[in-house]
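Example 9 (inverse folding). The structure is encoded as follows.
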């Protein structure tokens, strides 16, 4: 390893060379990515993240371009790809903003309009590659409203299916010894959520007495419960003296935050030793009550018609974390949490019938939904409707969103100014031995 230096002119030549290579890469459809799960990705930002051409590009130019594109995409669906395209063209001198970009922003805002169903259908038409995708979106447009969360997932089933779900679903299995005809689905359920280990019966003695006295339905969520406690609860359930189901979630990367999520969607105070709570004292408080809880195979469904106001902010927080996540595993875990916390959701399980026709189906659905959310938020604009659209080298009859164009324009201009103003670069280089 040794330290090298590039002066302004040398860096300018390297930058020009890199941009030419980047644009050739963008035009090369065969550079699509194939992931381990056999999904194919053609998204420019994700493809560019894996693109390597040389030391200067990989260590200096690429991080700047990629950061700008990811920040743009986190604000509005589709903005990341636009940002990369505009950045490369600005740097390469193919397009020069002869009018201030603030004036272009003004033109965009003046000519944008509120999106209607026809614009959504145009978006689908521009991105879909087979009729089955268009048919699914046609069905979704009839069933969903603005607030309906839609999730796309890969399924092992042969047929693609759409699930309309009204509850909070958590992938938790409950031991069959607790499930009877009366407890499989319980109504008016009193909930306790305990982020800890219940070691002895004495810790929940008051709860057991109260459940036996009132004959009300109870569910107790915890990290772990000792065998003695489980045996006591199971014995009393079989005798019919209590309707109390213990639910243990364990402790791994998938359940690290699940008790916090459950406490929010059940309006429960999370009982935790980190807050100085004692289990024996905390379960004497009045529990929260939800409409129903149903126990299925590896699935627990909670129906709460009046969730806490914290839920909306919590989901927004998770969505923000998801957008900035660069680790695919972390992204998937956060996505799963958002799905569990979203009531009234629509789940599209993409089967092999669609994936065989179009391996990029999941990416296509995700792209359309992301851009549709931005369209609902900020409206729609077609570049062939505005003057001076030649300064935006993009498809003229595509239903862009004003927010995606503006954030991409700002970020690409910032990248252009930053790279053009570099007077010299000091970097680490390596010698192959």
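The amino acid assigned to each position is listed next.
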């Amino acid at each position: 390893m040794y330290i090298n230096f590039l002066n302004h002119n040398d860096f300018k030549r390297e930058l020009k060379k890199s941009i030419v290579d980047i644009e050739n890469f963008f035009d090369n459809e065969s550079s699509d990515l194939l992931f381990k799960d056999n999904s194919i990705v053609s998204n420019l930002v994700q493809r560019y993240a894996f693109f390597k051409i040389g030391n200067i590009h990989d260590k200096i130019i690429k991080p700047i371009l990629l950061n700008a594109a990811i920040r743009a995409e986190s604000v509005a669906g589709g903005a990341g790809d636009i940002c990369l395209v505009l950045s490369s063209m600005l740097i390469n001198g193919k397009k020069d903003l002869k009018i201030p970009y603030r004036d272009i922003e003004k033109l965009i805002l003046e000519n944008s309009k509120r999106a209607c169903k026809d614009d959504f259908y145009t978006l689908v038409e521009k991105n879909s590659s087979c009729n089955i995708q268009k048919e699914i979106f046609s069905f979704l447009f009839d069933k969903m409203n603005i607030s309906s969360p839609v999730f796309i997932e890969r399924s092992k089933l042969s047929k693609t299916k759409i699930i309309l779900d009204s509850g909070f679903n958590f992938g938790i299995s409950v031991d069959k010894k607790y499930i009877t005809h009366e407890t499989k689905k319980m109504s008016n359920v009193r909930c306790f959520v305990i982020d800890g280990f219940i070691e002895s019966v004495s810790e929940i003695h008051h709860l057991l007495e109260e459940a036996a006295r009132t004959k009300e339905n109870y569910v107790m969520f915890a990290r772990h419960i000792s065998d003695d406690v489980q045996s006591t609860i199971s014995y009393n359930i079989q005798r019919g003296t209590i309707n109390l189901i213990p639910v243990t979630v364990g402790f791994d990367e998938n359940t690290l935050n699940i008790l916090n999520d459950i406490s929010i969607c059940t309006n429960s105070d999370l009982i935790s030793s980190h807050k100085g709570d004692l289990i024996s004292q905390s379960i004497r408080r009045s529990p929260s009550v939800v409409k129903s809880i149903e126990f299925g195979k590896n699935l627990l469904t909670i129906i709460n018609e009046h969730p806490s106001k914290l839920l909306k902010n919590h989901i927004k927080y998770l969505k923000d974390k998801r957008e900035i996540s660069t680790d695919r595993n972390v992204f998937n875990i956060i996505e799963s949490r958002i799905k569990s916390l979203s009531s009234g959701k629509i789940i599209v399980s993409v089967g092999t019938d669609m994936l065989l026709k179009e391996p990029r189906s999941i990416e296509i659905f995700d792209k359309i939904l992301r851009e549709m959310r931005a369209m609902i938020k900020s409206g729609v604009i077609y570049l062939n409707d505005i003057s001076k659209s030649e300064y935006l080298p993009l498809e003229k009859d595509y239903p862009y969103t004003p927010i995606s164009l503006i954030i991409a324009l700002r970020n690409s201009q910032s990248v252009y100014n930053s790279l053009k103003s570099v007077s010299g670069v000091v970097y680490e280089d390596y010698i192959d031995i």
